[in-house]
Amino acid sequence: MVSKEDVEVLVTCKFRLLKNIRFNDVERTAAVSSFYNVQGIIVTNLYYSKKAIEVAKELGVMLTNKFDIKHKLKFYVEKEVEKKELGILENIEKDEKIYLYIYE
Question: Is the overall model pTM greater than 0.85, yes or no?
Fold first, then answer.
């Protein structure tokens, strides 16, 4: 598990000598990440099968290679932090409207 700025991610490392990552690897990562209610990311030194890519899209698992992991994590964390900031701003706006109605 990786945590940065209150954004938690499950990173699964799958290093293989010969075979690509298959859909069942993606399903296992999706099951564990949903159990902990976090984003799942699979990192590998090889490639992914077509079915693994399809299943990852369906289950919301991010796929990356070992050379791209920093970029993917940074992008995901920034996106999640932005969502949280927007949620906070929306709550502040709602609170201000409530106070405005009470004051009038």
Answer: no
